[in-house]
Amino acid sequence: MKNSKIKNKKHLLCVALIGGAMTFCTYVNPILGIDRGTLNVYAEETEEHFYNGNENGGCIELSGQIKTVAEGQLVVLTVVRGTNSEMPFPTEEDSQSYVAYMEEKAAGSNGVWQFEFALEKSGNYRAYIGAANVDENQIIDFSYTNKARFETARGRLFGGSITDAEAGQIITDYAADFGIDDVVVNDPVSVAKLAKSEATAELFTYKNSAYILKKSNMITELNAGRAETIAEYRSVFEADGVKYEKYLTDDILNAITPKLSNKAFNSFAQFDTAARDAAIVSIVNNASVTAVQELLKSYATDLGISVSAVTSECVTALIQSNPASIGSITSFVNGYTSSPQPTPEKGNGGGGGGVFINSAPDEGKAPTEENETIYVFDDIAQVDWAVEAITQLSYRGVLNGKENRIFAPNDNITREEFTKVITLGFKVNLAEGECDFEDVDEESWAYPYIRSAYVAGVVNGISDTVFGFGSNITREDLCVMTDRMINIGGFDLKASQDITFSDDDQISDYAKESVHRLAAAGIVSGTGDGFKPKAYATRAEAAKIVYLAMMKTNR
User: Fold this and answer.
1) Residue 207 placed within a domain
2) What residues have CB less than 8 Å from 426, skipping those under 6 apart?
3) How many CB atoms are closer than 10 A to CB 368?
4) Domains held by the chain: number
5) Most buried pick, 124, 202, 262, 519, via CB within 10 A?
6) What torsion do the CA atoms of 157, 162, 166, 168 make, to the nearest 10 degrees?
7) What digits encode the pLDDT tens for the residues 5-20?
């Protein structure tokens, strides 16, 4: 590793692991009066933030340079527990309380200094390095994990059968060894339950235990409505590598906190989707046109919008509209025109401003109805039984028209089109994974939705190697995919009555249970001629079924 010059860093990590056990020694610090501060430091950087330990404690090396110190002059090291920026420099009386280690050593040529020492306890530490003729100390903050203690804690947390209360106590007892001693954990039982549901013992390593537990604690605090702000959890978003992380100012994090509170999140994935949506909406309403344009382009696939539609003119108008939801952002961008035209005025010439077709209603709000109904598409009045479903799914960004203002409700819907609708409707994360259907091009707009649905177990394809891309989906296959989505998501679907159809014998064996379950819940229904399982589903039918499934499962 190369030495690099680090200027005026108050929180500088330059800790390296060295081999062999060290003897723990204590020295009297003769210059405790030096003020806390920073200097230019030449230090060896490392990628590791956590270090191996053994039964005698961990072995740590700190090194750097003080140019004003002559060779042979004494340099003094004082290591204290904690990294609070307001922490006073320790006095002699503090040596038995929070001073973890003290030593003095002669500097090398050009003021280069190096200390090697051992620590037993895991935790966050601050090192002060100074000399008699130096006005300010160098300050190095670092985190240390005693690996032996961590392995003991992990073994207890994931080994054997333990109660939730016992798991919570382990979180409390080994907070420093898990890297969360700087976090207030109000409900360690809930934190432990969520963490164990998200990670196995193999995944819960000393490198990422702090991330898993901090994220679990953040979600637990939000669920309980105790979090005033999640700004203190910025490191969680950094670790997740979310595309919106660079726009997360403290103001944005403060703004999305109430939007994520009291939601009863039971998984990281569920939280991630809600956090992404809340962050995008807040960023759109608070960031610059350039930033919003960049953000929306990066999430174009997730939002169901075209990158080419995200022009600076469109984004400027979007920001001025103050969108309140992801659905309204999607609807605005997809419906935006550079020269918006108002709808005809109501009545026989009543006054007032017109309603522009690119004005996006808030998610979940149906069009107002006074003298006439305003449709989101010009051709859906013919399927009045599906108007609400089409309208609401359009507002939520779940489905789009075939062209401007045209939905084509009676056209058949293809397998890939329905996969996208149900994936967006149930907010499935666009996951990575293997999806080797021979007829699905990785460059296709549908690929991320098909891959995610396949990885989630919602869709299998018409064979082991063929998805059926471009083929219309049958009514029974639509029911199978919808039922799988409900089951995989763990949603409760209550049946009102047991329903069979006159053409039950025509329903494929693999689909019969799904058709009956959705029918019993009031999601699908037949006609006078039966259910028609082999008939191709229309776009209007697909919208109605997905919308009812979402309503029945409180999506």
Assistant:
1) yes
2) 485, 489, 550, 555
3) 9
4) 3
5) 519
6) 50
7) 222 222 222 333 222 2
pTM: 0.50
- Tokens found for residue 552: 């029945």
- Residue 543, pLDDT > 90, answer yes
Of 286, 319, 341, the residue that ends a domain is 286
Tokens of 85: 């920026």
Nearest alpha carbon to residue 550 among 427, 385, 425: 425
Q: Residue 1, class by beta-carbon neighbours within 10 Å (0-12 exposed, 13-18 middle, 19+ buried)?
A: exposed
Q: How far apart are CA 152 and CA 242, in angstroms?
A: 32
pLDDT at position 40 is 25
User: Which amino acid does the sequence have at 19?
Assistant: G
Is 419 contained in some domain?
yes
| Closest by CA position to 551, among listed 543, 269, 484 | 543
Instruction: Give 444-490 pLDDT, tens digit per residue.
Output: 888 888 988 888 888 888 888 899 999 999 999 999 999 999 888 77
Asked whether the predicted pLDDT for residue 358 surpasses 70, the reply is no
pLDDT tens for each residue of 113-125: 999 888 878 888 8
* Those residues with Cβ within 8 angstroms of residue 551's Cβ, 6 or more apart along the chain or in another chain: none
Range of the domain at 483: 415-552
